[in-house]
Structures are given as structure tokens and as C-alpha cells.
Amino acid sequence: MPRLEIAADGFRLDDRPLRIISGGLHYFRVHPEQWADRLHKARLLGLNTVETYVPWNLHAPRPGEFRLDGGLDLPRFLDLAAAEGLHVLLRPGPYICAEWEGGGLPSWLLAEDGIELRSRDPRFLGAVDDYLADLLPPLKPYLSTSGGPIIAVQLENEYGAYGDDAGYLADLAELLHTHGVDVPLFTCDQPSDLARGGLDGVLHTANFGSRVDAGLAELRRQQPTGPLMCSEFWIGWFDRWGAVHITRSPADAAADLDRLLAAGASVNIYMLHGGTNFGFTNGANDKGTYRPTVTSYDYDALLDEAGDPTPKYEAFREVIAKYAPVPDEPLPAPAAKLVPTDIELDSCASLLDQAHLFGRAVIADRPLTMEQLGQSFGFVLYETVLPAAGPAVLRIDEVRDRAQVFVDGQPVGVLERENHEHALAFTAPRHGAHLAVLVENQGRVNYGTAIHDRKGLLGRVTVNGEALADWTSRPLPLDSLDALAFTPAAPVVGPAFHLGTFTVDRPADGYLALPGWTKGLVWVNGFPLGRYWSRGPQTTLYVPAPVLRPGRNEITVLELHASATSTVELRDRPGLGPRDE
């Protein structure tokens, strides 16, 4: 069976030279009915390989559970890649970064006090062992040594930016081999981190988006012989809420790709197709200030969020054709789009009034974290009573990540981790007034030591300096909205679900815009499109054609604050920032 060989002068497969020309495509960011389309467009670009991460947190949502179904059917994705004649670079983690919630590490690890992630902590390595024991045996037939498309497997991910424990990397390599990986392993790091992130006997690769000559020179300095490869050639970037939409010109990115290929290097283009952080799956960064990532992972990639070729796709295809065969077929055409229409949301349901439908309240003398509640995504509703009437100052040690505060059902303010806010002043109307704090997990940090990112209210919660006790903590994962009872729309105080219907003759891709709405989440036919926020830059949510059906469709919007309208808009083009409006 063919095995990728790492020779002094490059890669060889089945005793023939191979230059890897790959593109990033994360199956978990794409609706599974669209996988085949995206992989076909990878082949038409001239790629011979695709790369994907594997999100441990989705495949193992709880300890002892493992999923390989639906949108997580990785074997099916690999079958489709093989059908297109594409090799696969598999990046199973355990940590993936990827601007993904928690860097792909499952939140239930953080239920362990003091656990050290990405380390030789036996609790962490034991969980990794269990994960790989579930993931890898079903993938054994997909290794190239068994006739499948996977030619190499990544060992961890940019570890040099986090630590320098070669023993930890050696432990991971042993686990991968123990569970059946017999194709080459590789590490990837930014050029300045190559020495810390590597392991003897494992191929080093580098990640960069510019300064190609310098990046390859540093890789060659650290690895005097063997293939040169850029495992993440960054051709765009991700966006965060409240910032600007980031783009990179096709000409600039294509020129750097030309430099890479002219140097004889292999490449993985990050991203071929970025896709979407559906639901609650976006990550965040925290380098002193918490910054959550937006729902769209368009990344200014070669294929846009709907999978349509961009000018960058055509520019890259022309460069690749100078160095490798490109199929003699026309450029893929954009997919059909929905006809723009307005949708009236004419029913509503209060979140606070129906919170009991989503989770059982747990009573304790202090607020419990999401992880202590066995919860990964969504919100927690904390409730207690205030000891006295009159002026009050609520102080919370740590808000993770955004807390809306209500007294007797009335909103009195918001505390945001992003703004380093810990205290809120209000007036309690009476002794024993009801205090409710709705906390949103806006995405666990996916990079750096801040990945130890527990959610909810952390530490002490006081009013006028006195600790509050007798709390209930209610998990609100919002993984199903089926039990909600809607009534005809009427003014609602506080967070509320808004429901409406619309019809389509033939399902097609579209974009949902919410002008006049403030912040929240959207579902279409029960499928979670993701978060919206009026602060931008993203102003639409991608609606994949497969989530729609001919005829009647339902849309549900959870608005956390207030809306100036009861209407949302289906559009035929995205709004990712000012350049797209």
C-alpha cells in the first residue's frame, strides 16, 4: 500500500515525487450536503489534497460519548474526498485552535479543578487517549497505508506558541501510533516557534501568510533536509465583533503563493473554504482583552461562505497551473440564491418565563460554572433574592462572558468581560426583590494559556459588599426549541424568541439580515445559523440551501435586548462588513 515518504529532497508517494498542493476545508463548518460540492471545487482549482481539523468537542460532547454521524460523519467526508481523487491531511488535535470554541478541546475537561490542558497532566492525557481510541479505529481504512486518502496526520497544533515540553509531544505521538496511525506525522508552527513546537523524528512545517522567503529560510534552518512545507498559508483572516471585516487582495496573495511554489515548497492554503461557525461554535481570543470571533468564517477564502468561487480562486488557479496540472474545465458557477424577501415574525415567547423548559436549576450557596453544570454552549440563568431595598452595587469577580442583569424582571444593566466590567449600580425596589443574571458564553478562548476558559459567574458575587447566597443556576443550552410555547406578538420585556414563517419554491442559498435588531441568535427550521450583533462587522447570517424545504419554513430569532422592528430580511448577497453593504 502507498505510504508517504519523507525524503531528503521532498515527498514521495508510491515511489513517485509528490508536491502537496492542498487547501483547508473543515467539514464541521460546512453543511454535510454541501461537502461534495466544495471538494469538487477543490479538484477544479488544481489541488491534489485537502486538509481538515477534527473538533474533539463536537465528536465527544460528554465524557463517554462519541459521535460520527450527520455533520460529524468524517468517514463520509473522507469517502467524498477520495472520490475526487484528493489526498487528505488530517489534523485531529487534540487541540486545533481554528478560531473554534475552546480550540476544539471539550469543555467538560474544565470541570476538573486545576487541570492543565495541553500538558502531561494524567487527567488530560487520559482523556486524549480515550478520544483517540474512539476516533482512530474507524479511520484506519482511510489511511493511505490501507488504501485510503489520508497521507499524513498532524501532531498537536502550533504547540510552540504554547509550550516547549517535548515529552508531551512524544506522549501524543505514542498515543497516535498505539491507536493505529502508521502514516507520517508532522508538526506546524509559526517560524519563530519552530524550535519549541517540534519533535525529533517528526516533520516540521511552518505557518505564515507573507514573508515567504524568510519563513522558508527559518524552516530550513531548523530542518536542514527534507520537504519544505507551509501547512497554513494564510490568504485571509478571521473577524471579531466590533472590528472591521479583514480582506487581502487576490493579487497580493497569489504573488506569495507563486513565491512558495517557485521555491519548490508544498503548501496548504488556509483557507480554500472557510465556512461558518454555526450555532455557538465560534472561538475567541484573549491577550489581555477578550475578543469573540464572529459567526462567519468566510476568511476571505478562495470559496466564499456560500461556496462560490471568488476572484482569489481564479488568481490562485492561474498560479497553480504554472506548477501542476489543472483540470481543463471551466470555473465553477455561483450557486443559485434566494429571491430577496421580508419575513414578519408574528409570535413570541419570553426566555425568562420559559427558562424552565431548557434545564434543571441546581441550588447552591454560590453560582456554578457552566462546566460544573455539565454544559458546553449557550447561557446560564442565575437567580437569587436581594437582601434589602434601596441603592445597590452588584459586584462580580469574573463575568464569562456577558451578563444581563434583571431585578423583578426589569433589565437594569449589562456587564461585559470584553470591557473588563465587574460592577453595576441599581436600585432594589423592595426587600426580597428577585435578582436574575443571564450569562452568555460568547465562545471559549481558542489560543494561548487563556484556553482554561470556564464560563458563567466565577468567584464572589456581592451586593453592597455582602456575599449573596442561596443561588439557583439553570443551564440553558438551547439545543432544542421544540418545547417553547409561542403567543401572538406583543411587547416583551427582556430576552424573547420571535417566530415567523416564509415560503420558498425551490431551496437555495441565502443570507438573513436583521436591521433594527440588537443581539442574539437565529434558527431556520431548527438549524442554528449562529449569532448576530448590531455592532458588526457581520450584518447577515448565511442560510445554507439544505436547511430549507420547498414550501413553508420557520425562522426563530432569540433577541436578547430589544428590536425596533418585527421584520427580518432574506437577501441574495452577504454583508460581512462595510465593503459588502
UniProtKB/TrEMBL annotation:
It comes from the Bacteria. Residues 495-553 form the Beta-galactosidase galactose-binding domain. The keyword Hydrolase applies. Keywords: Glycosidase, Hydrolase. SUPFAM superfamilies: (Trans)glycosidases, Galactose-binding domain-like. Residues 367-476 form the Beta-galactosidase 1-like first all-beta domain. One of its GO terms (molecular function) is hydrolase activity. The keyword Acyltransferase does not apply. Residues 11-322 form the Glycoside hydrolase 35 catalytic domain. PANTHER family: BETA-GALACTOSIDASE RELATED. Belongs to the glycosyl hydrolase 35 family. This is Glycoside hydrolase family 35 protein. It comes from Kitasatospora cinereorecta.
